[in-house]
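Protocol step 4 of 5: obtain the predicted structure for the target chain.
Materials: sequence only (see below). No template structures provided, no constraints applied. The aim of this step is simply to have a reference model before the mutagenesis design in step 5. Sequence pasted as it appears in the construct record:
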Amino acid sequence: MEPGRHRGYLQGPADSQPRAPCQAPRRPLDRALNPTQSPAAASPAAAPTAKLDAFLGAASAGQLLWARWVDGRLEVCSGATPASPVSSEVGRLFVGALRERFGDAASAIAEREWRLSLQPRRLLPARTVRHAVACAESAHSLLQAQSHLLQIEFSAVMMGWRFRRVAQTLGMDPDTLGLERRKVLDQVLEADFNAPPPADADAVATKLRTLLLQETH
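Step 4 output (structure tokens):
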């Protein structure tokens, strides 16, 4: 490897044949994405999924990021000047990486804030990558906190107010449910709160209502 260069393949063929460089003049970093179809066979629906770490690494070493086909694989590259030919997939790859890491809801906040989308895009500023990741990370933390609060409100064991309200709308006295049964209810609902945030309060209430109705039959 040449001094000052870095190439990180996320996946690749088993052989160790040298790869054609994804390099612009004086560009210090190459980052490879998952191997996929050749350019001729590629389509928007078949775009590969990039790992977010590849974008973060590239953004730390160059002002601009772009994607380029090299030996039948799409690589994300960074530097001051893009090397031709440049793919229009870099925007789609970055949004896909954000959604994979942080979930659709948190990613949507960063996408809106930094004007990102799945539309074709040839160049991506490193600044946009860094700030969009920080934005999505903050949004994800906030949504997780909201989901945790919602879990407490629906907790049968803790007699959360949402749990009590659902039970009362069914004509049930929540205090008559034994502790073991309430533990089971919380365990069943736990999957809803372990899913990518935010949890859907209406969906959880509907599920809880169904579970409680089973108690009466």
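Step 4 remarks: Strands lie at 7-9, 29-35, 64-70, 73-79, 124-125. The chain has seven helices and five strands.
Proceed to step 5.
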